[in-house]
């Protein structure tokens, strides 16, 4: 029998969970300084004092969520006196929903399903924190979802001024934003700005070498030895850089492994990776399209509806203006944002005045984009 073939009940995966997107690895490579900054902000809480607020920003897939969860895990293992609560603002996007999560974490059960007023919910939380001398730290992940619903001021205000209603309450907020072009401070009222004052922690894009390192680590723990060659790793790294999101690479490893198993092979081939990329590249698209504002989706829709893969910026603006009544400056900002999210590619015609003469093209099949924008 050919020993390179896999029997039906054999697998090349040592630990498949290393390729799940919500898997939190033991080591976050190349994020030492960001983790140290987070620890520094939280530090006072460990000594029973009010922590500093923090503001983590960086493109999708730069390890923000993972870094915060890592530090929260450490805090929970170290002490009961600090209560870290992680909120996914896409899921819990109202002040009430967020405080209900805090309540649940604090008491171990959700607030009564018959419903209690926000005021009551708030005061029960605040009282408990003071009585038990616990410091609350709330991470608001993907806080742009609160910016869309305009809940952001109320949420931050209630958290950061808790001590005014309940003297002795100590609260810190870590906000997380996957967008380098949005300025969160601009969206806050002056009253909230004056109490928030966060330490900014920047998560830069990973370099090619860093991406290779991170993927190598997953391969080492996720697959059995010698399943993935250096050549294959190189291919995955290259595609991950192209997509600009580590999620794509991690998902690609899983799919490529499954492709190899389907061929009953003990090794992942370059073709397995290529086939995997066709599916995995949409992991990024799925993830970022959800975070777009309505007007940004309109821009994509204009390109899709034109039936062309690319449009001149002037042509695109005409379509956009008709749908939204917004001016060129807003349009221009949104196009730039779409570019940083790798949803459009910009190039210059070399003619005309700057900005007006750019070509805006879609790096994805327009049908795939259309399927994901609900307008
Ligand atoms: N430094 C790192 N080391 C190992 N895995 C990482 C690292 N940074 C990100 N990842 C992985 O990449 C994926 C995206 O990371 P995540 O923390 O969710 O990014 P973000 O919140 O910035 O979008 C996750 O599966 C995560 O485990
Ligand atoms: Mg995240």
Summarize the structure in words:
GO terms for molecular function: ATP binding; ATP hydrolysis activity. With 375 residues, this protein is of the alpha/beta class. It folds into three domains: 32-202, P-loop containing nucleotide triphosphate hydrolases (Rossmann fold), CATH 3.40.50; 206-289, Orthogonal Bundle (Helicase, Ruva Protein, domain 3); 294-372, Orthogonal Bundle (Arc Repressor Mutant, subunit A). It contains 16 helices and eight strands. The chain has a five-stranded parallel sheet with strand order 2-3-4-1-5, sandwiched between helices. The longest helix is centred in the C-terminal third of the chain and has 20 residues, at 270-289.
Would you spell out the secondary-structure blueprint of this structure?
Layout: H1 32-46, E1 54-57, H2 64-78, E2 82-88, H3 95-107, H4 118-131, E3 135-141, H5 144-148, H6 152-160, H7 162-165, E4 171-177, H8 190-196, E5 199-202, H9 208-222, H10 230-243, H11 246-262, H12 270-289, H13 294-306, E6 310-312, H14 313-324, H15 328-340, E7 345-348, E8 358-361, H16 366-372
Parallel strand pairs: 1-4, 1-5, 2-3, 3-4
Antiparallel strand pairs: 6-8, 7-8
Helix pairs in contact: 1-2, 3-4, 6-8, 9-10, 9-11, 10-11, 10-12, 11-12, 13-14, 13-16
């Amino acid at each position: 029998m050919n020993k390179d073939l896999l029997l039906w009940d054999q697998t090349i995966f040592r630990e498949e969970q290393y390729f799940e997107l919500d898997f939190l690895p033991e080591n976050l490579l190349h994020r030492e300084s960001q983790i140290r900054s987070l620890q520094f902000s939280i530090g006072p809480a460990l000594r029973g004092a009010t922590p500093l607020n923090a503001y983590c920003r960086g493109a999708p897939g730069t390890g923000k969520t993972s870094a915060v969860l890592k530090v929260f895990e450490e805090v929970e293992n170290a002490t009961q006196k600090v209560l870290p609560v992680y909120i996914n603002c896409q899921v819990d996007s109202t002040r009430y929903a967020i405080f209900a999560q805090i309540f649940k974490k604090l008491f171990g059960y959700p607030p009564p399903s018959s419903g209690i007023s926000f005021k009551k919910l708030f005061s029960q939380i605040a009282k408990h924190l003071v009585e038990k001398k616990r410091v609350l730290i709330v991470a608001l992940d993907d806080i742009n979802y609160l910016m869309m619903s305009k809940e952001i001021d109320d949420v931050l205000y209630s958290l950061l001024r808790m001590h005014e209603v309940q003297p002795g309450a100590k609260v810190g907020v870590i906000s997380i934003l996957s967008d380098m072009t949005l300025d969160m401070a601009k969206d806050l009222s002056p009253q909230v700005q004056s109490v928030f004052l966060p330490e900014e922690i920047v998560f830069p894009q990973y370099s090619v070498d860093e991406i290779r390192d991170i993927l190598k680590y997953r391969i080492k723990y996720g697959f059995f030895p010698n399943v993935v060659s250096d050549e294959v790793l190189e291919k995955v790294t290259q595609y991950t850089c192209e997509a600009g999101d580590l999620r794509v690479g991690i998902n690609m490893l899983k799919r490529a492994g499954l492709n190899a198993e389907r061929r009953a092979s003990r090794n992942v081939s370059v073709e397995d990776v290529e086939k995997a990329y066709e599916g995995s590249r949409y992991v990024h698209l799925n993830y970022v399209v959800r975070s777009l504002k309505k007007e940004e989706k309109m821009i994509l829709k204009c390109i899709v509806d034109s039936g062309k893969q690319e449009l001149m910026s002037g042509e695109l603006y005409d379509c956009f203006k008709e749908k939204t009544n917004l001016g060129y400056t807003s349009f221009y900002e949104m196009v730039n944002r779409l570019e940083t999210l790798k949803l459009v590619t910009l190039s210059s015609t070399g003619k005309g005045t700057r900005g007006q003469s750019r070509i805006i093209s879609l790096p994805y099949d327009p049908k795939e984009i259309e399927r994901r924008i609900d307008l």
